[in-house]
Automatic annotation (TrEMBL):
Pfam families, sorted: Ig_2
Assigned keywords, A-Z: Membrane, Transmembrane, Transmembrane helix
Name of this chain's protein: Ig-like domain-containing protein
Transmembrane parts of this sequence: 218-237
Superkingdom classification of source: Eukaryota
PROSITE patterns: IG_LIKE
Cited InterPro entries: Ig-like_dom, Ig-like_dom_sf, Ig-like_fold, Ig_sub, Ig_sub2
Positions of the Ig-like domain: 18-96, 105-183
């Protein structure tokens, strides 16, 4: 366009506009070990270069950020940055995602209150603990070499000797602890003592001793009758 013999250029003022957003798949709860995909969308023209940041630290480039096996190390706040020759813009802080990990119980251990040795008539309390999100609320107790549970709840009172372990459960799975050993004489009740003594009440001298073991318990009976020394060994498999 010419005005008064001079060329006048029409100048258009460029206004930089760009919207940036982040989406995540899956959109629901994330379980440890899941595959997670973060996508960055930008409507810039010309197309923008995309960069990803975790907690303000650059982690990688590209529109898609995939994590094949999500773990606690990946938990944090993610943002993406869109940049072209006209400028740059970060995704809005509201859209940045703090990823929460849900997992099955792990690090399941059994602790014993006291020495772990049962005195006749007493019991030993076992406590099961674990790490998980959400916390484990269901606990089952087992005795080695037995398929059926012998108790439930986070604590368990062992009334007999043997090796015990617990299983912790939540909606994402379960894990069992290593077995712990409880020793003592509680597996022999008063009626058993009375029965043995009654069977040998005609003997001149009677000695009874108990030897607890991890798998079976042994009762040794030593008696003297008419100058004859007798030893009887009784095995109780627990």
């Amino acid at each position: 366009k010419f005005t008064n013999g001079k060329k006048q250029l029409n100048q258009e003022r460029f206004v930089f506009t760009m919207s940036v957003s982040v989406s995540i798949s899956p959109s629901g709860e994330i379980v440890e070990g899941d595959s997670v995909t973060l996508s960055c969308s930008s409507d810039s023209n010309p197309p923008a270069e995309i960069s990803w940041y975790k907690g303000g630290t650059f982690v990688r480039s590209g529109r898609i950020y995939s994590i094949s096996k999500f773990s606690s190390d990946h938990s944090g706040e993610y943002t993406c940055k869109s940049r072209n020759k006209h400028g740059e813009k970060y995704s809005d802080a509201v859209i940045c995602l703090i990823l929460s990990i849900l997992d099955a119980p792990r690090n399941v251990v059994v602790s014993i209150t006291g020495s772990g040795e049962i005195v006749e008539g007493d019991s030993v309390t076992l406590i099961c603990s674990s790490d998980s999100n959400p916390p484990a609320l269901n606990f089952s107790w087992f005795k080695e070499n037995q398929s059926s549970a012998v108790g439930s709840g986070q604590s368990f009172s062992a009334l007999q000797s043997g090796r015990f372990y617990c299983e912790a459960h939540n909606q994402h799975g379960s894990q069992r602890s290593d077995a712990v050993t409880v020793t003592g004489e509680a597996f022999i009740n008063t009626l058993l003592y009375l029965h043995i003594i009654h069977q040998f009440d005609n003997y001149d001298d009677l000695h009874l001793s108990v030897h607890p073991g991890a798998v079976r318990n042994v009762i040794v009976i030593a008696a003297i009758s008419g100058g004859l020394f007798i030893i009887i060994i009784v095995l109780f498999i627990m």
